[in-house]
Amino acid sequence: MEVYALICATTFAAAVLRGLTGFGFALAAVPALSLFLPPARAVTIAILLQCMVGLRDILSTRGLVMYRTLGIMAIGAVVGTPLGLWGLTQLSPDVMRVVLAVIVAIGLAALLLKIRLPSGPGPAIGAGLTAGVFSGLAAMPGPPAIAYFLGTDTPAKNTRASAMVFFFLTSLMALPGLWLAQNIDVQVFTQALIALPALLVGTWAGGRAFARLGEGGYRLAAIGLLGITAAVTALRGIGGLL
């Protein structure tokens, strides 16, 4: 029962960040869950939860989602996700933790540098491809996707809505690979299902906070989230390798 309580508490905290930024869930949940669960199980729980809540996200944000851009990004993600899933099955838990930290640090660097991307389908496909790799590897499509949206100066409300729906799509893409790799079983599905209410309540709370943020506050929240996650995960992974 202690493990279930930890999963629910972690899910709630990560969901608040998800509701606040639109992309905080896996970035926070997977490294935190991997502190007391194998990283592959943490990734699987995060993906299952994002699939479970995805339809609700589509309905609640449908007026703000950039559907054309998401369609282009999804094409890239279809190619990238199997590559990430292959990496997930090949890496040890501590190496996975280091990889997670590097992934988060990439997103942080993109935000700090305020990278600007040209318009057109090329950058969108590239962002989708990279996000797919990150999704399959660590349930973290966030860094490249958010870097893309912020790099094209997309308003915060559209970035948040589009990111939430995109992460639902990438989670769906990852499910077949997780099933084939035998990462989905009754226990992990039960853990995700029990944590679902915590995800819903946390997302609602984060959404209330987002309504009070301006564009600057949104960026600061994203930078802070990425920085803390990268530091904690890197220390755990490096400590295990030493």
TrEMBL record:
The keyword Transport applies. Keywords: Cell membrane, Membrane, Transmembrane, Transmembrane helix, Transport. Pfam families: TauE. It is found in: Cell membrane. It is a multi-pass membrane protein. Coiled coil: none annotated. The chain crosses the membrane at residues 67-89, 95-113, 125-149, 161-181, 188-206, 218-238. Its main location: membrane. InterPro entries: TM_pro_TauE-like, TSUP. GO terms for cellular component: plasma membrane. Belongs to the 4-toluene sulfonate uptake permease (TSUP) (TC 2.A.102) family. This is Probable membrane transporter protein. It comes from Pseudooceanicola marinus.
